[in-house]
Design brief:
Blueprint lengths: L8 E6 L1 H12 L3 E4 L6 H12 L6 E4 L3 H13 L4 E5 L1 H7 L3 H6 L5 E6 L13 H5 L6 E4 L3 H15 L8 E6 L8 E6 L2 H8 L26 H30 L6 E4 L6 E4 L3 H15 L4 E6 L1 E3 L3 H7 L5 E6 L10 H11 L7 E6 L9 H17 L6 E3 L28 E5 L6 E5 L2 H4 L18 H10 L4 E7 L2 H4 L12 E5 L4 H17 L9 E8 L2 H4 L1 H10 L3 E7 L25 E2 L2 E2 L8 H6 L5 E6 L5 H14 L3 E7 L3 H5 L5 H10 L5 E5 L2 E6 L10 H5 L14 H23 L4
Helix pairs in contact: 1-2, 1-7, 3-4, 7-9, 10-13, 11-12, 15-21, 17-19
Bound molecules: thiamine diphosphate, iron/sulfur cluster and magnesium ion.
Length: 756
């Protein structure tokens, strides 16, 4: 085989996520389907920013959740082009069900897995608990220990996965924050053509976009065929192991950067060794140097490939090592070691001559740092076992704190009594004629008597609209409540363990499934009351709080809860973006608005599609009460809250949506918040109305009050949309105005019609 000529390199200083994006730009995938989740989000953000500047032509498709993203990617890959995705932690788990579909039908694509601890509890920092869930999906897995390897492995992944004997999707896994967010000196090809030449044209022996050659993708397949399908997948894994060394060698010649299947450091003559993945293995090298300087014969091993598992390489590398400590950044609970430990131990067992003693340790969970001293301690434990010829503690955790069993948790604030939580000034009565509710609430001053169910002192940004809105809403709710929060700013800033700003019972579930969770709790409440296990005279109102993002990814469960008619209130605070993760677009974000995944540049004008009308979607479930409102619109929100509770008490499902400002992402002066909400209502972007038992009623009509303003006036108040008022974006503005007008006229017609 002839040697490949070295291609010119450019030196830079970049983070892992940036390197994934640079590689994607050089590969120029046909499409990226994605959904934001820390710490992988920056990859899509970077690529979107590059797209806006015309640096690549990858079609960027924002999904409604990771399951959707995986589906978009699968659909795109059956279309025969190159496809990219990036995710972490819960995102991987939420998409997981799609992964065997992709590998089982043998459509290659690349997924960057920026590793992070799997929830719960929710932790955004890095470990390998997510990666370990991917081991049985039939995807190839490359590991990238530093930003340089992130770039290189992304390029190698395309060529490997598309190899005609392989045809499998590939995960490139690197450590969240440690690698994704740390800048390092890196090199990459100066000319993207070098990457194009290396990966070659996209190889698609069959695809769904060739009507002259129709194919059936994913037939219904039972015994006796399925085992054959899986056997072929197994053969593809074997082929992948066979072809990878050549691909890596060729890549090494082209780039000057060489990657063995199993990376070994100072393993010559090593009596004791440490096995670890990715960034921890880099840290361990320093510990090896220290111990070697002190005369200890130690070394470190770390694979660059996890699937197929390099078992023979481990057997070879550890043939004469007396003891090895295998460190796992994730546990396989109850198995006596994490997956890496189990697989290394199994690999050694296949060599009857092998006498290496194995120690398994779980370390670094939830982003816990792994220092050189920690690696040195692991190596010393392996040395001690090697010297003693036996292992005292085969499996243990490292770095945990057993806690103080005597510690008593206390309430920082007293619980709110029923009496305190019941205001005389809120009155709800059923209208005997219409069957609808009439509400009377007291003055703003009288309403201040309501206890604050969410205590001040949480960590929201100054001027954040979430808490004033929630506070106003909860003033209209009487008696005991249980709150369920979706993941989002409202949740993150109120519950940083071990503190909580919630004075009433609070439950969190991830934002794809809160409505179902609260449904379950509501049913349990009913059933336990029916069985006499809970007092029949004690009443609880169940309220779920979600951001607009939670109503993208969690839309299905929300509709499900509404269709089942569970007595609960779903309150959405719509701040028009995924703010907690850094202002990515949500489906509620206005057309043309700038966000970190909808940039404004010569090739992109912010978000490319219209804002979602979630209230109308929920109204189509025919639940008894739907409303919209906003903070600072008098007592509108308090009145609607009281009505919402009346319906929930009657056994109905309620959905409410409140416009909630976010100064840092909408980019206006904090103190202008109420004006911005008011302007959104006055320009009819945010119609304020209710749908009670199917009848729509505008509760604020800016036209009737002669307060209507042009849409551009509201858009001009915020830097995220101000560009739409410039002449070059007149066409986008005109489309936006027409859509707002259409929706407003339709609502007005419904308001005026006796039946609608
Ligand atoms: C399955 C899954 N995907 C993604 C995330 C990351 N994530 C957490 S909160 C959030 C955005 C929430 O947006 P929204 O509901 O609008 O609330 P906000 O942050 O704006 O308050 C995202 C993308 C996650 N935790 N789990
Ligand atoms: S980012 Fe926006 S929504 Fe989140 S706490 Fe700050 S102001 Fe509130
Ligand atoms: Mg939001």
């Amino acid at each position: 085989m002839s040697a490949t000529k070295r291609a010119e390199q450019r030196i830079d200083f970049r983070k892992g996520n940036e390197m994934a994006a640079v590689a994607a730009r050089h590969i120029n995938y046909h499409l990226m389907g994605y959904y934001p989740i820390t710490p992988s989000t920056e990859i899509a953000e970077e690529l979107d920013a590059m797209f806006a500047e015309g640096e690549h032509s990858i079609r960027m498709v924002p999904a409604d959740g990771e399951h959707g993203a995986a589906g978009i990617c699968y659909g795109a890959s059956v279309g025969g082009g190159r496809v990219l995705n990036a995710t972490s932690a819960q995102g991987l788990l939420y998409a997981l069900e799609q992964f065997p579909v992709q590998s089982g039908t043998r459509f290659p694509m690349v997924l960057n897995l920026v590793t992070r601890s799997v929830s719960g509890p929710l932790d955004i920092l890095g470990d390998h608990s997510d990666l370990y869930y991917a081991l049985n999906t039939g995807w190839l897995i490359l590991l990238a220990r530093d930003p340089q390897a992130v770039y290189d492995m992304n390029v190698v992944a395309v060529r490997w996965g598309e190899h005609p004997e392989v045809r499998l999707p590939v995960i490139v896994a690197f450590d969240g924050f440690f690698t994704s967010h740390q800048k390092r000196k890196v090199s990459y090809f100066a000319d993207a053509q070098a990457v194009q030449n290396f990966i070659g044209p996209c190889q698609t022996p069959y695809h769904a976009l060739d009507p002259e050659h129709p194919i059936t993708i994913g037939p219904y397949m039972n015994d006796p065929d399925l085992i054959n399908n899986k056997y072929q997948l197994h053969l593809a894994m074997q082929a992948a192991a066979r072809v990878l060394p050549d691909i890596l060698r060729e890549y090494g010649e082209l780039s000057g950067r060489r990657y063995p299947i199993l990376e070994s450091y100072q393993m010559e003559g090593a009596e004791a060794a440490l096995v670890a993945l990715n960034s921890a293995a880099e840290t361990a090298r320093e510990a090896v140097d220290q111990l070697r300087a002190a005369g200890e014969p130690v070394g470190v091993l770390s694979p660059n490939v996890l699937r197929p598992f390099p078992a023979s390489e481990f057997r070879e590398a550890l043939r004469s090592t007396k003891a090895v400590l295998i460190a796992d950044r994730g546990d396989s609970y109850g198995a006596g070691g994490g997956n890496l430990s189990l697989e290394v131990r199994a690999a050694l067992k296949e060599d009857p001559q092998n006498r290496t003693l194995c120690l398994s340790r779980v370390y670094g969970l939830g982003g816990r740092d792994f220092y050189v001293e920690d690696a040195a301690e692991f190596l010393r434990q392996a040395v001690a076992a090697a010297r003693a010829g036996r292992v005292e503690v085969p499996f243990d955790y490292f770095g945990q704190n057993p806690g103080d069993p005597e510690h008593k948790f206390k309430h920082y604030q007293p619980p709110i009594s029923l009496k305190e939580a019941t205001l005389d000034c809120v009155k709800v009565e059923k209208d005997a004629g219409t069957g609808r509710f009439n509400v009377k609430v007291g003055t703003t001053r009288q309403l201040t008597a309501a206890p604050q169910r969410i205590a001040p002192g949480h960590g929201a940004c100054p001027g954040c609209g979430i808490f004033p809105s929630l506070d106003q809403f909860l003033k209209g709710i009487q008696g005991h409540i249980v709150l369920l929060f979706h993941t989002g700013c409202g949740m993150v800033v109120t519950t940083g363990y071990p503190y909580s700003a919630h004075r009433v019972t609070y439950v969190h579930n991830l934002f794809q499934n809160g409505a179902a969770t609260l449904s379950g709790l509501v049913e349990m409440y009913r059933e336990r009351r029916r069985r006499g296990e809970l007092p029949s005279d004690q009443e609880i109102t169940f309220i779920m709080v979600s951001g607009d993002g939670g109503m993208d990814i969690g839309m299905g469960p929300a509709i499900g809860a509404a269709l089942r008619g569970h007595p609960m209130i779903l309150l959405e605070y719509d701040n028009q973006g995924y703010m907690n993760t850094g202002n990515q677009l949500s489906y509620a974000t206005p057309l043309g608005a700038a966000s970190s995944t909808s940039h404004v540049g010569p090739y992109e004008v912010g978000k490319g599609f219209f804002h979602k009308d979630t209230a109308q979607i929920m109204a189509a479930t025919y639940c008894p009460y739907v409303f919209t409102s906003g903070e600072g619109l008098g007592t509108d929100l308090v009145q609607k809250a009281a009505k919402a509770q009346a319906y929930a008490r009657e056994g109905g499902f309620v959905y409410g949506r409140v416009l909630s400002v976010c100064p840092p992402s909408w980019r206006y002066e904090e103190r202008q918040g109420t004006k911005v909400v008011k302007a959104a209502a006055d320009c009819c972007f945010w119609p304020v109305y209710e749908i009670e038992q199917g009848k729509t009623r505008l509760t604020y009509d800016p036209e009737a009050k002669d307060k209507r303003i042009p849409l551009a006036e509201w858009l001009g108040m915020m830097a995220r949309t101000r560009h739409l008022t410039r002449p070059e974006h007149a066409e986008t503005l005109a489309r936006f105005e027409a859509e707002v007008e259409r929706r407003w006229r339709r609502l007005k017609a419904m308001h005026e019609h006796p039946l609608l």
